[in-house]
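Work Package 3 (structural annotation) set out to generate three-dimensional models for the target panel prioritized at the project kickoff. During this period the team completed the workflow that converts sequence records into discrete structure tokens, so that structures can be stored uniformly alongside our sequence database. As a representative example, we reproduce one entry of 259 residues exactly as it appears in the project archive.
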Amino acid sequence: MEFDPLTFVAQIINFVILTVLLNKFLFKPIKKTMDEREAKINKDIEAAEISRKEADKLAETTAGLKRAFEKDRESMMSLAASEAEIKKQELLRMAKEDAQKARQTWMMDLEDEKDGFLSGLKSRGIQYVCALAEKIVKDLGDEELEGRIAAVFVRRLKELDFAQKARFGASIRSEKSPPCVVSSFELGDATRRKLRDAIKDHLEYHGEIVFEIQQGLCGIELKTDGYTLAWNISEYLDEFEERLTRVFEGKVYPEPGKG
């Protein structure tokens, strides 16, 4: 086989042309497509990396927010529990105060009712005893009963100590108006003389004495502008009222005549 230079040159030219054509129409588009795909892949990788970093950042932020929320939640729960306890104590205090006020009001009402009952009982007792005493005096005309009442009053006068007698006598003697003996019924002449003699002996008063009647007194009183010496049934009713008060208060009171 003979070497044909023309054919060899032609083949070389054909090869070059084929190479140029392949490079232009095949290799370049393929390389361009591959470069574009590589660029796209690199871009996607960069985007993915950016997304990963953003996701990590978001996850870190979320974790921080969660930690802050947990901390705030614990703080808020603690604060809520503290406020609830304060409110509870406040409500308990208010309930206790309301109960105390209600009890005080109830005790005051009860005390008022007790005072009203005792006052009414005492008033009705005085009226009843006085009416009974007057009826006895009027119906029986018993001078001895009148004398006994006067005798009790005279004993009261004798039982005054020296200083009391001195002050009482000085008060009577210094006043312009005469002393007054008040009783719930008319005193007889003998009883009046006995009272005058007692006042003269114990108070050293020799002047005029006025006798008056006061319905409802149920006893005898010697009155001046500055002093009053009295014996009447209200003293015994006062003792009776005190005993009833002790009963209301649940206290044991000694029986009459036993101290």
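Helices lie at 5-140, 143-158, 162-174, 189-203, 234-248.
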